[in-house]
Amino acid sequence: MVVGMENNTHKLVVIVASVREGRFGPVAASWLAEQAESHGGFDVDVVDLADVEIPLSLPAASPKYAGDDYPRPAGMRPLTTALESADAFVVVTPEYNHSYPASLKSAIDWHFTQWTAKPVAFVSYGGAAGGRHAVLHLENVLTELHAVTIRDGLAFPNYFTAWKDGRPLDPETPGYAKTLLDQLAWWAGALKSAREATPYPA
């Protein structure tokens, strides 16, 4: 049994990071959400940043210290609520110029405590590197927010030839996804139990 599960599931938020026209992100996110639902350890919610109001300009106050009083736009409320309620995250991201999209950085910067002491896994895609440069940068950013990043992610090099009809062509990919989800469920249970037992000393 996964630590802390006891016949219930963990709230998993799958974040579609790209807002670019014609993006591949929703395809990968839909498939990953399907794998997570089949896994049995998660209650899955897909959040598409293209549907969220995310201004580039930020208030003067830090969300770390402002807490519930942080003045977010009304259109951001569904994202904030989803992040608050999540026990775990999967970020589905492309690689733009060896990093991740500005839309994702803005969504991260508008929040702080919502990520604290929660696990984050990555599904990346791109050209030859499969989005790994983006993930390396995200690991640094999310560590600063006291999140726990999962080592075993999914990367899809040359995704435009590696998928067909909304599914990856490599028959071993579902097995890799299971490894990601098993680790994510373990960390989700362990960290949820820890947060409930003792407030995190951020």
UniProtKB/TrEMBL annotation:
<protein>
    <submittedName>
        <fullName>NAD(P)H-dependent FMN reductase</fullName>
    </submittedName>
</protein>
<dbReference type="InterPro" id="IPR050712">
    <property type="entry name" value="NAD(P)H-dep_reductase"/>
</dbReference>
<dbReference type="InterPro" id="IPR029039">
    <property type="entry name" value="Flavoprotein-like_sf"/>
</dbReference>
<dbReference type="InterPro" id="IPR005025">
    <property type="entry name" value="FMN_Rdtase-like_dom"/>
</dbReference>
<dbReference type="Pfam" id="PF03358">
    <property type="entry name" value="FMN_red"/>
</dbReference>
<feature type="domain" description="NADPH-dependent FMN reductase-like">
    <location>
        <begin position="11"/>
        <end position="159"/>
    </location>
</feature>
